[in-house]
Design a protein that fits this description.
Number of helices: 0
Shape: globular
Structural class: mainly beta
Helix content: under 10%
Order of helices and strands: EEEEEEE
Largest sheet: 4 strands, antiparallel
Radius of gyration: 12 Å
Number of domains: 1
CATH class: Mainly Beta
Strand content: 25-35%
């Protein structure tokens, strides 16, 4: 099975799709069983675990924003459910 997602840093709570992933498709390359809950475009983020609203989204080992809604493993993470952190 070809890898369709990668985790960039060990502390990340999202992976990056290296190919488009369809709803229900297995997310491979993340070291655990995971299925996409929505269609995930190539180069977009996928939640690896539960991320509650207000929690940090971590990519590259750094916070890149906060969840604006509760996220479940396999959710597409993008501007519809992620916002910049307020200083």
């Amino acid at each position: 099975m070809a890898v369709n997602a990668v985790i960039i840093h060990a502390e990340d709570n999202v992976a990056v799709a290296v190919a488009a992933i369809r709803t229900g498709e297995a997310v491979t390359g993340v070291g655990r069983e995971l299925r996409a809950r929505q269609d995930i475009p190539r180069n977009h983020k996928i939640a690896l675990r539960e991320i509650p609203a207000g929690a940090k989204i971590v990519k590259y080992g750094e916070a890149i924003g906060v969840a604006i809604s509760d996220l479940r493993p396999g959710d597409w993470v993008h501007t519809h459910n992620l916002k910049a952190e307020e200083n």
